[in-house]
Amino acid sequence: MLDENSSALSKSLSRLSSGSKITSPADDSAGLAVSMGLTAQIARTSAAQSNVNNAVSFNQTQDGYLQQVDTALTRMSELTVSAQDVTKTTSDRALYQQEFSTLQGYISDVSSKDFNGVSLFNGNTLKVTTDGDGTTFNNTGVDLAKGTTYATALDSTKTKIDSVSDASTALTNVKAAISQLSSDRASIGANEETLGYYNNQLSTLNNNLSAANSQITDVDVATESTNYAKENILVQSATAMLAQANTMPDSVLKLIS
Questions:
Q1: Which helix (H) or strand (E) element contains residue 144?
Q2: pTM (global) more than 0.90
């Protein structure tokens, strides 16, 4: 009985010190198998949530740049109208053209920006992993490069304001770029909104998986503390009784002597 109680006391102490009620496979082999599956799923879900959060940051960075592009295009459209003023001289238009070209250069520079080495504005659709099973969401890209309305507005040979007629053409091109920018920012907003839903979904799933795993593996401190106190008393009692039993031969010898 002392051996049994000592073993139970040791197991109870191990559970309390580790915080887990499965300290060896023998404690609950089926529960351990389920817990291992849940633990792996929790890890995959956490990784997917990290992917989603990074994709949200990617979209937010895109929109931060595009807000400045919006400001630049708005100013460019203003300059195209000012350059059509018949009271302006060629020298005046040259000054407008200088600012206009500077803004074109700024937007062209933005088109080459990246996020952790991934191009922000090459137009590629990114497949974002949204769960632990590898399901993906198509994150729509934005293209500021060649072959777009942006490229036309940024082409200094096609879009310039050094004359009234050129300024009129430039206005059309810049307005088209502004229209495209509105569409692109709307797409980014839709990306962020959808990714936000995925993030909330993953957070809820992770919480529920963790709670389910906790039910299997985490020790009930109150119950286990009671068991520990009980086993401790039994060990002390068994030890005392063993000591008492060990004195019985001495009593018999005294009677014989």
A1: none
A2: no
Spatial CA neighbour of 190 closest among 140, 128, 142? 140
Q: How far apart are CA 257 and CA 252, in angstroms?
A: 9
Q: What local confidence, expressed as pLDDT, does residue 229 receive?
A: 74
Q: Are residues 69 and 13 in the same domain?
A: no
Domain identity same for 175 and 199: yes
Positions of the chain with pLDDT under 70 = 2, 5, 7-10, 12-19, 21-24, 26-27, 146-147, 218-224, 228, 234, 248-257
The counts of H helices and E strands in the chain are 6, 4
Domain count for the chain, please give it.
2
**Across the strands, what pairs with 20?**
218
Backbone angles phi, psi at 53, to 5 degrees: -65, -40
CA dihedral for 178, 182, 187, 188, sign (positive or negative): positive
Structure tokens at 34: 């389920």
What 3-state DSSP class applies to 247? helix
Please write down the HEC assignment for all residues of 151-199: HHHHCCCCCCCCCHHHHHHHHHHHHHHHHHHHHHHHHHHHHHHHHHHHH
